[in-house]
Amino acid sequence: MTLGTIGGFELVKPLGSGGMGEVFFAVSPTADRVALKVIRKHLIEEPTIRDRFAAEVDSLKLVFGSRIARLENADPYGDPAWLAVEYVPGATLRQHVDAHGPLPLPLAAMIGAMLADGLGKVHQAGLLHRDLKPQNIILGPDGPKLIDFGLAILIDRSDYLTEPGALVGTPAYMSPEQVRGERELTAAVDVYGLAATLVFALTGHGLYPPTNSWNLLLRITEPSDLPDLSGVPAELTPLLGAMLAHDPDARPGLDDAGARLLAVATASSGKTASGLRQEVAGLTYDGDTELLVPADLQDPQRDPEDTSVEPEDDTVPVPDPKPTVVDPERQTDSGPDVTWLVERIRRQYARRSTL
């Protein structure tokens, strides 16, 4: 039994919810698994909401790469508005750390390098993620993947879809310029978000102690109130500190950050990048979280219109499973009569125009 159908997808199970809508595990008519996001109905009438949702769809059409959950289909102006992206099995980075504790240095640094590579693809498409956080990273069977581009915007957009001064993002992982509501954001916001995410992955705590949102926002915008890097290994403290610089121009570029993360990962483990990739997947992917297609939604094993009884290849047909009756008067030392089989094979090959 399913929860209904949207856009031809059968909704099977809720996966979670966020500021813009609810997410369901869903299945297509051909048994493709997707994560389908439905925008909250009470937000439909809010200014710019449908346009922001449409921007998410446009963003996903432009991004690519193994670190991005690909777009499957969408209807941002439907009722309800929705989009379906590739279903990535596995726990989020937040769930993994909450359940198993902080990641060891080599794994965290390698995950950071892989995410930097994925973000590089996002930036090449002229986009920003703007909401990078542990909850938006799935630790899949092939390593980490970025999800939820609901807050991504075109870097060079001349028409902004959020109200002036509106805060877009999750406060604990927002850069100072995002908190200030600045319009001209750059790729440095994602560099900051990546560093904040890695601090959590390495330590299990955020950049600032838990507090109410307004106090947190004030602390983020105060240049002298430095983020808490206690527990971060010494090998990464200088890099993450630089990525969290209050001035976005002082942060390293994404390529530089990714290269330095990879160098720390390989040096601290003594392993190659290939070996570390396998270790990341092997130690962080939780196969028990994978959702399978329900049996009643699986594809039929045989085409119901296929009524053929003869094989369409050139293999020798298997004789009918019935006893062979041997005429005693025709039996010889050479064995039973197989004339019927020879004739059947001759008829089979006679139908082949190429032989």
UniProtKB/TrEMBL annotation:
Highest taxon of source: Bacteria
Residues covered by region (Disordered): 296-338
A GO MF label: protein serine/threonine kinase activity
Ranges of residues in domain Protein kinase: 9-263
Compositional bias (Acidic residues): 306-315
Keyword Kinase: yes
Gene3D superfamilies given in the database record: Phosphorylase Kinase, domain 1 (3.30.200.20), Transferase(Phosphotransferase) domain 1 (1.10.510.10)
Matches recorded under InterPro entries: Kinase-like_dom_sf, Prot_kinase_dom, Protein_kinase_ATP_BS, Ser/Thr_kinase_AS
Binding, ATP: 41
Keyword Oxidoreductase on entry: no
Coiled coil segments of this chain: none
Keywords, comma-separated and alphabetical: ATP-binding, Kinase, Nucleotide-binding, Serine/threonine-protein kinase, Transferase
One Pfam entry name: Pkinase
SMART domains for the chain: S_TKc
Protein name: Serine/threonine protein kinase
Organism name: Micromonospora chalcea
